[in-house]
Design goal:
Elements: H1 5-16, E1 24-25, H2 26-32, H3 39-51, E2 55-57, E3 61-63, E4 66-68, E5 70-73, H4 75-85, H5 89-97
Antiparallel strand pairs: 1-5, 2-5, 3-4
Helix pairs in contact: 1-3, 4-5
Amino acid sequence: MILTEKQEAVLTSIVRGNEDGSFCDLDQVIERVPYETTKASIQFIVRNLIGKGLIEKKRPEKRRNRRRVVLSPTPEGYRKISSKRYAGPEALARIMVS
């Protein structure tokens, strides 16, 4: 499966998650991608990544005084990023734990 650079950047942001180990919400993904974007553009990419089975939506959580949908990578999403950036199953295990 081939991803565009922007799809890969969004997936990487979601795989990395937050510093405290929690998953990102949409606004956090927008802040972390390495290019200027709009919410609509990121939503389009998120829908595409969900369709490819690389990420999924979790239950909404209250964050920053609002209910926000949380995005998490699927095991396939972790594998896709780990195969691009890292080598070996040990790296995948580190990604999935952090």
